[in-house]
Amino acid sequence: MKVAVIGSGGREHAIVKKLKESSKIDELFVLPGNGGIAADATCVNIPVTDIAAIVEFIKDNGIDFAVVTPDDPLVAGMVDAINAVGVPCFGPDKKAAIIEGSKVFSKDLMKKYNIPTAAYEVFTDMDSALSYLENAPLPAVIKADGLALGKGVVIAETKDAAKDAVKSMMADKIFGDSGNQIVIEEFLTGPEVSVLAFTDGKTLVPMVSAMDHKRALDNDKGLNTGGMGTVAPNPYYNSDVAKICMDTIFMPTIKAMESEGRTFKGCLFFGLMITPNGPKVIEYNCRFGDPETQVVLPLLDSDLFDIMMACSNGTLDKVEVNFKDSAACCVIMASNGYPQKYQRGFPITVDSDIDATLYYAGAKINDGVIVSAGGRVVGVTAVADNLQNAIKKAYTATEKVHFENAYKRSDIGKRALAAIITED
Ligand code: AMP
Ligand code: GLY
What we know:
single chain; about 425 residues; alpha+beta; Rossmann fold; Dna Ligase, domain 1; D-amino Acid Aminotransferase, Chain A, domain 1; 4 domains; 6-stranded antiparallel beta sheet; 5-stranded parallel beta sheet; 13 helices; about 25% strand; binds adenosine monophosphate
């Protein structure tokens, strides 16, 4: 089998490494991939948004199966375009990817099918949004409708900050057309849990739960980033919570999508908050999370290719999906200054006795040398018998990865460990 993975980050590197374990794959391509992924698969430099060029590549090279992971091409309909040339794909089609592509769609879906989420209002004109904010509870949560590079959510503590956020989305159009409509919603509290799930549209199999660390600095301070580290499993997601989520959120969501004529196949990501009133959906993503994937897939004990194929052809109930009874921690090594200004282009060296897996994100090859090339450079993932050991092992391994200007948080997994200790 010839398989092509579309994407270029640490998430795609984790998918590639797991797919490589499958005996059914003979050749693995990544479009465009990066200089670090190049050690594991053939990287072909086509941007993820160039649907026509990717479809051409797939046709010309006799690709048997494609895996589409980033949000932009999914929402733009890349899976439909690949299926149209007769190649099966892992990922939702355009009609289903709207669950991430439009917050208004996903909020209305949850309301219609009684799926627990924050109370909300939708606004299509700025004046109504501004007058609503005169008496709205604070903090107010303001969300641009469409994709916004993960930056489309503002939590405003004051009325003025809320109004500024609305103006920047709806008048200044900082996210372009994504701000044509906005959602203003209730502020929820409680620990957050990420659950990724495989689904073929009828059967849904949750993966091991994870905890992301989105802020740039220790103790969840600083700016929001794409994610500075993850741990799995998430201790807040115990078996009681898991059952409630399955019954009130996961199955109702895939049934709702089917009823709407938008059957979802692929990986559905549930961003959950475990509120005092039970688990609620903060957001859906139509894809694997990054860096959740870098802790979830290393714990997968089954053949990822078989699972992906089954999601695509509707036979997920026939394949095994097992996870190891272990724990994983991923510490992201970033360029200092990320997510704002940072320098890149520094050689990356790795000590030979490192005991962890490296998932490259912002890396490229310059004159035969691997160098830093982005904000998030590399994810360092360790697996161990328990979370405490996984965290220790991951941090020990980060000392063996060297590049100038490297930055990492020092507290990935700390909150999760505290939660385990409190439980005991
Ligand atoms: P998102 O881009 O939808 O993942 O949102 C980014 C972050 O904003 C989430 O991870 C939450 O921490 C926070 N957030 C989003 N919606 C709410 C809400 N209704 N209440 C509290 N926090 C929220
Ligand atoms: N880690 C959250 C996301 O992938 O959007």
